[in-house]
Amino acid sequence: MDTPSQTTTMTTIERSRPFVPRSGERVAIAAGSGKLPIEIAGALAASNHRPFVVLIEGEADPASPLASYDHWLMPLEQVGQFVAKLRAHGVTHLVMAGGIARRPDWRALRPSLGLFRILRPVIASLARGDDNLLKALIRYFESEGFKIVGAHEILPDLLAARGVMTKVTPNAKDRADLHAAAVAARTIGALDIGQAAVAIGGRAVALEGVEGTDGLLARTRDLRSNGRIAGIARGVLVKCAKPGQELRADLPTIGPATVTMAHAAGLAGIGVEADRSIILDHGAVVARADELGLFVVGLSDQDYVQ
What we know:
Elements: E1 27-31, H1 36-46, E2 52-56, E3 71-74, H2 82-88, E4 93-97, H3 113-125, H4 130-143, E5 147-148, H5 151-154, E6 163-164, H6 172-190, E7 196-200, E8 203-207, H7 212-225, E9 236-239, E10 253-254, H8 256-264, E11 269-273, E12 278-279, H9 282-292, E13 295-299, H10 301-305
Parallel strand pairs: 1-2, 1-4, 2-3, 4-5, 9-11, 10-12, 11-13
Antiparallel strand pairs: 6-13, 7-8, 7-9
């Protein structure tokens, strides 16, 4: 499955009971943009655990419910203080959730031992893609004594299930598009480029890059409007985890806005990898897809990707 010709089964995430911190443990959330960090904090609070939240400045919304928890608003340029701040707040476990669109302003970084220690793995991985960077960061945090927890371990119900979730189901042409998009998504994932692809008319027409899924869908919409794929109806978006991906961070994620943007791009539906993708606001995703006449389907190796 690392390449389109391979059929090795990907390791799936086993669904289990949600992770709940024990006495003496404290969870920190490194919170980027989006709703996932808010969902994680809410789940921890519901289990009578108040997390420590690191709001990444310019990404996490400081006016969101996250600010109601013990928190620190961290400019990326102060990343050298991150570990010391976690220790000062008694943190034992760390969850990384939400998007980070920008990189630090290197000119604004203040030299320190903490900065040097965290920058070594970061610099070594910068040219190797986001997943390699996340793996390096996770190894670093583990070497500092923190246990890394995946968002799916706290909220296992967010994992996409296998099968069609909507009233509309994919037809034979849609299934061909799902296969083509899944193969393309796995291929760029093996290169640590992105997690998503759009296929129309049985072939991949657009691949996710550094602009993310929203940018991919906006580009697909533009391709239709400027005539590059005019006259070819329907099409699909597929999101898959990268082969060998670190599953405790950056799982493929869709939400209601993804459905709206897919519809604006003229697509017929969305496929996500079952058990290795997150669906935020599942009920709202399904309701929005039903409203717009799109399908949403959880894909497995046995369905469309071999």
